[in-house]
């Protein structure tokens, strides 16, 4: 499935560990719950960028579209949860996003560029995880996750293109920096399952 998105595959530092895939299969209610939270957070991130950078015309256009799509995805996940009697509950955040965002530079345009690069990694990883999970899920959930691949891949492309547009220099070094961080966050063990967690801790 990911063969249609070679740039996305090349962007990510690694595939999801098999142990994480098995963990997800064993925790499908939690997967849906955290997925709903992820979609809501993604919409919030896009809106925050629109509020902060009101003079960036292309950003406003792409983030407005992205926010609408993420909210639609939230509604779709939430509907699936209701149909399956899965409660939508508060969850603690995974260390993934914070592990990336704590390295955002504080001066502009570096702050914006880093935020956009992180957005690209989040969307690319989401796309990869939906693709690796789809073959292992029931027909309804599998079709739903496959249906998300195209939009998640486009969101990755939008974030990366905006980072390149506003950097005024090569972003290769920052992409490499965050790629190394992302690799650690995806491969190091976690004690709680999340959409963007690492494999389960042996403890």
UniProtKB/TrEMBL annotation:
- The protein, known as: tRNA-hydroxylase
What PANTHER family has UniProt attached to this entry? Answer: TRNA 2-(METHYLSULFANYL)-N(6)-ISOPENTENYLADENOSINE(37) HYDROXYLASE, TRNA-(MS[2]IO[6]A)-HYDROXYLASE
A Pfam family of this chain = MiaE
InterPro entries reported in the protein's UniProt record: Ferritin-like, Ferritin-like_SF, tRNA-Hydrxlase_MiaE
- Native source organism of the sequence: Marinomonas posidonica (strain CECT 7376 / NCIMB 14433 / IVIA-Po-181)
GO terms (molecular function) for this protein are:
tRNA 2-(methylsulfanyl)-N(6)-isopentenyladenosine(37) hydroxylase activity
* Taxonomy, superkingdom: Bacteria
- Gene3D superfamilies recorded: 1.20.1260.10
A Gene Ontology biological process in which this protein takes part is: tRNA modification
């Amino acid at each position: 499935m990911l063969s249609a998105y070679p740039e996305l595959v090349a962007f990510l530092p690694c595939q999801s560990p098999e142990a994480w895939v098995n963990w997800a299969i064993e925790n499908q209610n939690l997967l849906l719950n955290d997925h709903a939270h992820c979609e809501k957070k993604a919409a919030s991130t896009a809106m925050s960028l629109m509020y902060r950078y009101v003079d960036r015309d292309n950003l406003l256009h792409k983030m407005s579209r992205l926010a609408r799509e993420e909210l639609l995805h939230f509604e779709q996940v939430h509907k699936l949860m209701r149909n399956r009697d899965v409660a939508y509950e508060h969850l603690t955040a995974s260390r993934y996003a914070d592990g990336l965002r704590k390295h955002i530079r504080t001066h502009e345009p570096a702050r914006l560029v880093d935020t956009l690069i992180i957005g690209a990694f989040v969307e690319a990883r989401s796309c990869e995880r939906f693709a690796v999970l789809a073959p292992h899920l029931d027909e309804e959930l599998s079709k739903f996750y496959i249906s998300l691949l195209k939009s998640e891949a486009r969101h990755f492309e939008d974030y990366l293109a905006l980072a390149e547009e506003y950097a005024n220099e090569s972003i290769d070094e920052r992409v490499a920096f965050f790629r190394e961080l992302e690799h650690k966050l995806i491969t190091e063990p976690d004690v709680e399952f999340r959409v963007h967690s690492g494999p389960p801790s042996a403890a």
